[in-house]
Amino acid sequence: MIYNKQAYELGSKRSAIRELFEYGKQRATIVGAENVYDFSLGNPTVPAPDCVDETIRRLTEELDCIKLHGYTSAQGDAETRAAIADFLNKTHGTHFEANDFYITMGAAASLSIAFHALTTSQEDEFIAIAPYFPEYKVFVEAAGASLKVVPADTENFQIDFDALEEMVNANTKGIIINSPNNPSGAVYSRETIEKLAELLYKKEVEYEHPIFIIADEPYREIVYDGVEVPFVTKYYANTLVCYSYSKSLSLPGERIGYILVPQEAYESRALYAAVAGAGRSLGYVCAPSMMQKVITLCQGETGDIELYKKNRDLLYDGLTKIGYKCFKPQGAFYMFVKALEEDTNAFCERAKAEDLLIVSGEGFGCPGFVRISYCVDEDMIKRSFGAFEKLYKSYQ
Ligand code: PLP
Q: Measured from the CA of 108, which atom of ligand 1 is nearest?
């Protein structure tokens, strides 16, 4: 093979989720779109808040071409970074500064940069907590490190600390956490974050080097019933926050987010330089200029989260009434549901035969469960219950 083997392999097969989504589009041409219940993707359906469109309109009227569409600083506009720092400081009582932020093209870029910035040897390991976002493995391996996975706590979807403690070793560079979680919908409690911090402080002393938390937070604002999402840097100094506006502002196609390097982190300014350098070497510089201006002016805004809550309640009530065992999501827009047979992939195939497109937990490191994305049209959820009931009955 003349081409990069790893790149070729990644590029020549789609993810299981994308595969299912493409199948759904094709199936819709045969049975009609209204008869396919596609719960595969996490594409926000709630419109962006008005602030986004209004700001874009105003910017296009008021700014000249260079100001609107020109290159920004590689790490992002100082004004944008200052606006993010101000907002977080007001919200969380923190003391961040503009220079603690590196603006990126969404969480995928933030994570890739973080893993590149932290990896110093091919022995390095990052630990994810199942269920986890499958792309972590791709990003970590591209940085030259390897990914280990702590099995899921399938009762509460918090962290199995005994398993985590056993997995941390001298090669551990970081622990990746994602709360609110895709795919479980769980939010890590304050107790969980405190316990994690306590364990990692202990391990840092034992192994005499920093161990980072990489907090992947694209769903931070999407929570229900007033649940608290602890701000991780307040509990643990060696934290890199990887944030994205893809979900909170419903802008996944616009590619905008950031990495926060708090000043309390180990050799923080050197770490920031490594983040900027990783961004440079990966080509993640000058995030989209217009979107930087949009987020500057839309700090604190979100799409209407009540609409996701409505879908969550509708789906949870409907499925539990049929007899499914579901983990009630506290945040994000996914529901994790117990499969009705041992072989999770076989269960998903049987669901597919009813035109229910749901994603196996296998790919998230959590067999036995399936992910149902409820960032979908409310009517589709209502229409799908007949098919869910038929599927359930086929197992009785
Ligand atoms: N991390 C998690 C847990 C996600 O669910 C996603 C997207 O769905 C991402 C990261 C990537 O987000 P972005 O669109 O900002 O790159």
A: 16
